[in-house]
Amino acid sequence: MASKTALLLIACGPRYWGYAEEFISSALEFFVPHDVILFTDCPHTFNVARQIPCPALGFPNATLKRYHLFTEQQQILSQYENLFYSDVDMRFVAPVAEEEIFSDGITATQHPGYVGLSGTPETRPVSTAYVSGVLRNYFCGGFNGGKAEIFLCMAHAIRCAVDTDSRNGVIAVWHDESHLNRYLQAYPPAKVLSPAFCYPDVAGDYYRNIWRNAGLGEIVPKLLALEKGGS
């Protein structure tokens, strides 16, 4: 272990291998000092601290079961002080300082489309991701992290919830994001990041109006969420 922080990435399928190359380069330039832990089915070796073989799980399991991957590697991940997960089809575009993202618990990112709104949580009581009442914050699944011990505790809780749903023939409406929001309703994050850490690649008036109504004003992007059609 060369760093106190691990950046967890998942890249399965040729399309996402390409995203991974660019993401890793952007993180090296802009993210806090870190080791990249890459889960991938790519036959080639990336320039990362550790590359862990991972089969392509398809839809919806590729997102629904991402926290399963992390719990399976707990022995490795628990050696770090901080763990952060990011979708690989994103890109850092500005420097990120430790004090911006480090916390004593979980660090979560406001969903860019639902700042100041309750978002789209799971509303069916049949799912373990069910949210009662109104959420104060709705968080995106694309970037989160925190203290390693607490992050892994969250990962185990989400894995257990997903497995329970699976046994009952239920899939949460927004997969892992639904379970993440249910968990963070019960255990609020220690730090909440603005949509600067999930900034839409094409951020038009729709997003800007939402942010303005929420009192955020102009947001300077740190981590771009890329349009799915390109990299």
- Helical content stands at 25-40%
Radius of gyration, in angstroms, nearest whole number: 17 Å
Say how many strands there are: 10
Q: How many helices in DSSP terms?
A: 8
Q: Give helix and strand order, one letter per element, not per position.
A: EHEEHHHEEHEEHHEEHE
In the sheet with the most strands, the strands line up as: 3-2-1-4-7-6-8
Instruction: Pick out the low-confidence regions.
Output: none
Portion in strands: 15-25%
* Tertiary shape: globular
Sheet having the most strands: 7 strands, mixed
Beginning-to-end CA distance, first to last residue:
30 Å
Structural class: alpha/beta
Average pLDDT, all residues = 94
Structure in words:
It is a single chain. The chain has 231 residues and is α/β, with parallel strands linked by helices. Helices cover 33% and strands 20% of the residues. The protein is built from 8 helices and 10 strands. Strands 3-2-1-4-7-6-8 form a 7-stranded mixed β-sheet, with helices on both faces. Helix 3 packs across helix 6 and helix 6 packs across helix 7. The longest helix has 20 residues. The two termini are 30 Å apart. The mean pLDDT is 94.
